[in-house]
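Let's study a protein:

===
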Amino acid sequence: MTEQLDLSTLENAINSLKEAIAVVSDDVWFKQQSSAVQHTLIAGVIQNFEFVYEISVKMLRRQLEQDAASLDEVDSYSFRDMMRTAGEKGLVRNVEAWFSYRTLRNITSHTYDHQKAKTVYQASYAFVLDAQDLLERINERNQ
């Protein structure tokens, strides 16, 4: 029997992202904040996005390693191969969305631009749902 994955870090990170999104989504309250506070809160959502993305990919890779015939099989995967395999195995619903999230993650790590930050922030709403779905699917495999 394979060892169960500890998904608590991913679960906590997703909850943190959900909380950050909830704070920023309170339009009335958010618009009452200064521009500096608004930018800081949005930066918090983006930072949570980055953290959840990294942990999601790590947990996905670990799950695929557990499911694989050999570790070498998964180690040889490119990111795109890993996501396609995850889609084939029912761990990810929308592989293309995860390709997009990777692009957004790379944007945030290489440059800061207000418009790019806004794009990542807006994508966080869909991303958190996909990350939650991934968590649930991996969790089912670890029961």
